[in-house]
Design a protein that fits this description.
48% of the residues lie in helices and 22% in strands. It is of the alpha+beta class. Helix 17 packs across helix 18 and helix 18 packs parallel to helix 19. It is elongated and about 185 Å long. The relative contact order is 0.05.
Length: 675
């Protein structure tokens, strides 16, 4: 078993390279065999790592964990060596058995169990073990590398086979004579050509003529066989399923001029591409020609796209930051929330400045723009110029106001006629009093002249005449009654002034922007106007709370109050036909969280439950023909909604009806979130 001495270092062409060499040694720790073996193995290089195990199970565990390059087993351990050899599998590292001498029986036994070599524990043991270990390690690593390479080759073969079998393209290898060498299953499916029937046939006999000619496939194969670079062509054919399209390529494979022909069906892709192009053109036409302005912005608010309507509305080409035009609530509570939180909005109203500096009312909707992975990339902002709509709204509201005033005309005329009547009577009476007082004044003038003459007799006679006239006309009463008539006339004119003032305030159109308003004052002044019509048949109860200012269009809110009060009066008037007591309208205001609450309640006929869901619909009315248009409550509801508020109705037929309005303090300048 002894081997001739040879250098203990690896030959230059046989180095031991990283990673480090791991040797598992089965021997008595600290024993002579273990020490000499470690000394021999360490001489192979600093990268050798030796693990000493006293028992077979310990060594087997390390061997099975992987990373071991060599097993060195002390043959004197007998059964332990046999157990280790029995536990090895075909891929296990080689095993060297150390014999105490030239023990042929032991050597034969371990060779039968799969040992790679047997080394005698003699004087030159260290040198022999090192040489044997180096040889076995190099063989083991070479075998491992060959095995890995073979496995890689088998994997690549399976991969190639799977690709050829599963690729969604028809593949065919054509030899120099134009005959098919092999085809894949997709080729057989596309052209109804089983592989065993087409191999060896000319490709011209297998591929449809229209396909060959439309794609010049013969010429394509010739150019590929000649070594020209691959090129893509489009070929078409028609079969029972309809027209089909293929992208065709050809590439030379080897020096025998064999060519790989690839036919990828693009029928569906072509159809989808055409449909996508059609949809893109349709979308572009819609966006380019829609009346609404459309902007696409990134997460920083920079404008990436603007349609012509946006350029027209803004008066210039929108470039740069959106915040140049969108500021205040439209920016902070609309667009920035969409960019930051992905919230959708629609129907927001606000003002933007055009390039000329003109402030334009707009209605705005905003939605997040996301990529295919659902990640927000920006927002789409759509807005419309509301200038004409606002003008029409103001005209409709003004017409409704005039209609409301028309309904109150008789009451207003009566309210003005009463003070005018006693003012006219007082003025007539004052005219007579002036004539009587003129006589007294004449006598006073006579007394002045007598006093100027210095004649006591003339003075006495003038004084007697003055006293006689004053007593006859009762001058003291005349002066007292004149003062009373003037006071009454002033009171009457003040009443007329208040009525006219309330009418003017009510009929005055709103401005283009919201303003802070005292809703108690709005409700009270409107009630004063309506009161002229109903004060003889209705009892009005007011319960006003302390309210914060509300940002709104005051004249529109007054129109809401007017419509509700007139509606309540008409309900009371209808109910009053069959009862003796007067009806009652109760007005109540309270501060609420984030805004104000207003209630208008009456004890009139009420609203049938079947009509509650329709009373805010335009032109819906339960009144007789000619009494109502059906627009009053609809207009009121929409005004409240445009202010970001709510209007609810609660009614018990024959008992009461209560309208409850909530208006936010900010006037609802930004729309609510869209579902």
């Amino acid at each position: 078993m002894e081997r001739p001495s040879k250098p203990l270092r690896p030959a230059p062409d046989e180095p031991l390279s990283a990673p480090s060499v791991v040797v598992a040694l089965l021997a008595e720790p600290g024993g002579s065999t273990a020490q000499r073996s470690e000394q021999a193995l360490v001489r192979l290089g600093a990268e050798v790592e030796v693990s000493v195990h006293a028992t077979a199970p310990e060594l087997v565990r390390q061997m099975r964990s992987g990373g071991v390059d060599l097993l060195v087993l002390d043959g004197s351990l007998g059964d332990a060596v046999q157990r280790v050899l029995a536990a090895r599998d075909p891929d296990a590292p080689p095993a060297l058995v150390v014999a105490q001498g030239a023990d042929e029986k032991l050597a034969l036994s371990v060779f039968r169990r799969g040992a790679a070599d047997c080394v005698a524990l003699g004087p030159d043991y260290e040198e022999v073990l090192a040489v044997a270990a180096l040889e076995q390690i190099q063989r083991f690593r070479a075998a491992a590398e060959r095995g890995a390479a073979e496995r890689r080759i088998r994997w690549l073969e399976r991969l190639h086979e799977a690709i050829v079998e599963e690729i969604p393209a028809a593949l065919a290898v054509v030899d120099a004579r134009g005959r098919l060498v092999t085809v894949n299953p997709e080729f057989a499916r596309c052209f109804d050509a089983p592989p065993r029937e087409v191999v060896g046939r000319r490709f011209q006999d297998v591929l449809p003529e229209t396909l060959r000619e439309s794609g010049a496939i013969g010429r394509l194969i010739e150019r590929a066989a000649a070594g020209h670079a691959p090129e893509l062509r489009l070929a078409r054919m028609r079969d029972a399923s309809g027209e089909r399209a293929f992208g065709v390529r050809a590439q030379r494979l080897d020096e025998d001029r064999r060519v790989l022909l690839v036919l990828a069906e693009v029928t569906l892709t072509e159809a989808l591409t055409k449909e996508l192009a059609t949809l893109r053109r349709f979308g572009e036409n819609v966006i380019e020609n829609v009346n609404s302005a459309l902007l696409v912005v990134d997460l920083e608010g920079r404008i990436n796209y603007a349609n012509p309507a946006a350029e027209s509305l803004l008066g210039e080409k929108p470039i740069g930051s959106l915040w140049r035009w969108f500021d205040g609530a439209l920016r902070e509570r609309l667009v920035e929330r969409t960019l930051r939180e992905g919230v959708r909005f629609r129907g927001a109203e606000g003002l933007i400045a055009r390039g000329s500096g003109e402030r334009v009312p707009i209605g705005t909707s905003c939605a997040p723009m996301v990529d295919p992975d659902g990640v927000r990339r920006g927002a789409v902002v759509i807005f419309q110029d509301l200038t004409e709509i606002k003008q029409l709204q103001r005209q409709v509201l003004q017409a409704e106001k005039m209609a409301s005033i028309g309904q109150l005309a008789a009451g207003v005329a009566h309210e003005i006629n009463n003070p005018m009547g006693f003012i006219h009577a007082n003025l007539f009476q004052l005219g007579e009093y002036v004539q009587d007082l003129a006589r007294v004044f004449e006598e006073v003038q006579g007394l002045r002249k007598a006093a100027a003459s210095g004649s006591l007799g003339e003075v006495a006679r003038a004084a007697e005449r003055l006293e006689s006239v004053a007593s006859e006309l009762d001058a003291d009463y005349l002066l007292e009654d004149c003062a009373k008539a003037v006071r009454e006339s002033l009171e009457g004119s003040e009443r007329i002034r208040h009525i006219v003032q309330d009418l003017r305030a009510f009929s005055h159109p709103d401005g283009s922007e919201r303003s802070d308003a005292d809703l108690n004052e709005c409700l009270d002044s409107t009630a004063n106007i309506v009161w002229t019509m109903m004060k003889h048949v209705v009892m009005l109860t007011k319960d006003y709370g302390e309210l914060p200012p509300v940002r709104c269009f005051p004249m529109q809110i007054k129109q809401v109050f007017m419509n509700l009060l007139v509606n309540a009066y008409q309900a009371l008037e209808e109910a009053g036909r069959g009862r003796e007591r007067p009806g009652e309208i109760r007005l109540r205001t309270r501060a609420a969280r984030g805004g104000v609450q207003i209630e208008v309640e009456d004890d009139g006929v009420g609203i049938p439950s079947a009509d509650l869901n329709r009373i805010f619909d335009p032109f819906f009315t339960t009144k007789d023909v000619g009494v109502g248009t059906g627009l009053g409550l609809s207009i009121a509801y929409n005004i409240v909604k445009r202010h970001g508020g709510t209007m609810r109705v609660d009614s018990e037929p024959g008992v009461r009806t209560r309208f409850s309005i909530f208006l936010p303090r900010d006037g609802g300048e930004v729309a609510e979130e869209a579902p």
